[in-house]
């Protein structure tokens, strides 16, 4: 007969949320000091972290990929079974608790909290605020005299009261494979805004990672590498020319670190070019975290990789706003990438909703000289429209060429709006979305037009489609017209498909 295990062997520390509605809810259950399972020959087997009743293992586990801890609630260490984490949204007066975590190490039980406190326009953030208790020293008859230990992974402060913004953050990130110090500051007094972020630390080399050893810089024995990066951005009127104004400058440098390249759809929000550190433009502490988070951040440690970045932001002809950054990376081979965000509106200096045309475009260009790839892409954002905010523009283009050491050397492609529906797109080709216009004329009438064109080393194609749908309760109608052409060169093949579909529906319940 199967038996359900309610509590596994060992000590349990459970965090409950009463919620004020009667039945408590368990946020997390942390088990520690579990007895080790044994094989038939009596040999103890290490349990897999996070597994309630692990099966015996006779082979050692592979070493994990280098992992750097999040800001706030830290990761596993030593004799605990990892850090149990639970998401919680609790607000008490001006305090907000966003995360809770528990960890057991060196006979000490520690509970961690991420806390945000508001005092008027000032926001304080305490990441990984921990309170620990040595269980081997605890006597229940003297529990009131026991002094807990305190831990703090990081802290931040923000004053956001336009036109003034001041923010700063500092955190220490440490686990079994690294120790890192990260800090940032943002200052804004309109029309000038400044943001700077930096990090320094030491990371264990992949060949010497040991998941169950505490990281110690003093005894690294050459098995580690040091990493550092600095990023700074200044916005404000800097240089005025006849047809353009330079309104921002960006600089960055990284030693033993790498920049995570965004996808084309994420370019407008890429922190190197996105609006950041300005009143009303978002949380500068969140911007700093997005840049410096060693797991999901834009900049992460990597041995033997170096990069420099420089960018400008400006306005041309009163209608075009452009922000661009160039990143040169040595890893150890040279690669060059350019990311840009362009915005154009007509008439100029008009609120977006009142514009006749508003276009927002993300652009990226990437060249890897060792792998032999040139890649240029651009894509309209969903915010783009013409004539009416309900008349949306969308789509993208891509240009690629492969050379040198690439297995696809000699191949190229150019596409605006994608490919023919019957064309088998090679796996190394990017597929831009259809160039389209979608207009909701009313609640009853919707019109959409699409177009595409592409040329490759083996084929040429183009086409378009127009659809109109009408829906008025019981009565609905639609019209679809399309034309698609495909020509392949070797061997020669040509296909054309043209069609019109019209339909009317009437639903009557009897």
Automatic annotation (TrEMBL):
Residues 88-508 form the DUF6603 domain. InterPro entries: DUF6603. Residues 27-86 are annotated as: Disordered. Residues 49-58 have a biased composition (Polar residues). Coiled coil: none annotated. Pfam families: DUF6603. It comes from the Eukaryota. This is DUF6603 domain-containing protein.
